[in-house]
DNA sequence: ATTTTTAAATAACATATGTTATATAATATA
DNA sequence: TATATTATATAACATATGTTATTTAAAAAT
């Protein structure tokens, strides 16, 4: 009973996501979403208690998108996949990525601490990383995490050299990984 | 003639800078600056046509602060100094640094293109970088630029390992530079 | 066909902020 | 000392936005 639903929760989140990607998360307003959907603000308030709840739902959507990308890039080597996936997210959703760098509170924070042990474990299985102590592996991981973040930030801000392709980015990520690992081997005299 | 000036342009910019560092650039409002100075908004509008002009002045102040840091870190090796200075800025003015990553439009954009040739020239004078082609030097520079940005972003977001000191940051920057250079040498069979 | 339910629209209210017009009062100058 | 100047305060206005109360009307239930 009652009229058909014309504006769903998903549709609202979709619209918010689009605004976030084009104008930034802080530019999201109830009226702007409504206008973009061709509705009033009423349907939004039916689906969300307030703007904070809507933005929480948006964050969940963003996380789900980044998980989807990670899934698509999965090759069985998390150490490698996470770098590629994060880079792809930064390129495809650059405005949102930049917003996340600022509001890293919930999203990025804790992420490293949680991932670290699993990644170290994964690295220990990698033949190319044979013979390293956990401490050495941690350093290699940290260096690559730093490089990958820098690459993503520069890519999201279009600050890489002109004509730099996605493949170039993947190549330099891989090349630097080689640099770091090779040097670590040299240092321990392998 | 007229009462003494109680609130100068510099004082206003100082106050805006403090708000930018504690709450972010977007949290700056005329009333907030006034309240923090213990004045009304009137002195602000005497010194600035509008809020955009004030924020432009703030940007100039930010650039001048970063220049000052670069000056303080100068050792004659720009390739090295810029990395250290940028890192120090990210640590000391983390909130502003994060804002700059987003609003990189004027600040970061063009920066690389302008600096690149001068840095390459500087690198050619460095004995440790002897024998590399310009193309190889460009790659080394880009890799280090990427690493330095990543390190600065992670530092500004407190995403480096717990207890990570400033010296640790400088050390890992330097260690990675060694990695990249050593590997480049290996590649060309030196 | 009438009534009930409820999704959506509308409009109002509250608050935050930029901005400006006017009033106040401190200081220099005559 | 009286006057002119002007830095500052005050208050009002405009706009943007979150939020809510009320109205409208479409669909189901009777």
The largest contact between protein chains, plus residue counts on each side, is:
A-B, 37 and 37 residues
Strand content of chain A: under 5%
Radius of gyration of chain A: 21 Å
- Oligomer, anyone? homodimer
Short description:
Chain A is mainly alpha-helical and 190 residues long. Chain A has helices at residues 9-23, 30-37, 42-47, 51-72, 78-92, 94-102, 104-107, 111-125, 134-156, 166-187. Chain A is elongated, with a radius of gyration of 21 Å.
Notes on the structure:
- 2 copies of one chain form a homodimer.
- Chain A has 2 domains: 1-65, Arc Repressor Mutant, subunit A (Orthogonal Bundle); 73-190.
- Helices cover 73% and strands 0% of the residues of chain A.
- The first copy, chain A, has 10 helices and no strands.
- The first copy, chain A, has helices spanning 9-23, 30-37, 42-47, 51-72, 78-92, 94-102, 104-107, 111-125, 134-156, 166-187.
- In chain A, α1 packs across α4 (51-72), α5 packs across α6 (94-102) and α8 packs across α9 (134-156).
- Chain A is elongated.
- The model of chain A has no long low-confidence stretch (mean pLDDT 93).
- The A-B interface holds A 24, 26, 98-99, 101-102, 104, 108-109, 112, 139, 142-143, 145-151, 153-154, 157-161, 172, 175-176, 178-180, 182-184, 186 and B 24, 26, 98-99, 101-102, 104, 108-109, 112, 139, 142-143, 145-151, 153-154, 157-161, 172, 175-176, 178-180, 182-184, 186.
- Chain A binds a DNA duplex (30 and 30 nucleotides) through residues 1-7, 29-31, 39-43, 45-46, 50-51.
């Amino acid at each position: 009973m009652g009229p058909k639903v014309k504006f769903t929760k998903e549709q609202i989140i979709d619209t918010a996501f689009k605004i976030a990607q084009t104008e930034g998360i802080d530019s999201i307003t109830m009226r702007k979403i409504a206008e973009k959907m061709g509705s009033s603000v009423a349907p939004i308030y039916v689906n969300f208690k307030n703007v904070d709840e809507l933005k929480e739902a948006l964050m969940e959507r963003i996380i789900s998108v980044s998980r989807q990308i990670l899934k698509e890039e999965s090759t069985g080597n998390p150490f490698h996949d996470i770098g590629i996936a994060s880079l792809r997210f930064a390129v495809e959703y650059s405005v949102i990525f930049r917003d996340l760098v600022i509001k890293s509170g919930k999203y990025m924070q804790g992420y490293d601490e949680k991932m670290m042990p699993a990644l170290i474990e994964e690295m220990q299985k990698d033949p190319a990383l044979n013979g390293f102590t956990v401490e050495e592996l941690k350093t290699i991981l940290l260096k690559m995490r730093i490089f990958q973040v820098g690459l993503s930030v520069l890519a999201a801000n279009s600050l890489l050299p002109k004509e730099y392709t996605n493949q170039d980015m993947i190549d330099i990520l891989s090349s630097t990984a080689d640099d770091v690992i090779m040097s670590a081997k040299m240092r321990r005299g392998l």
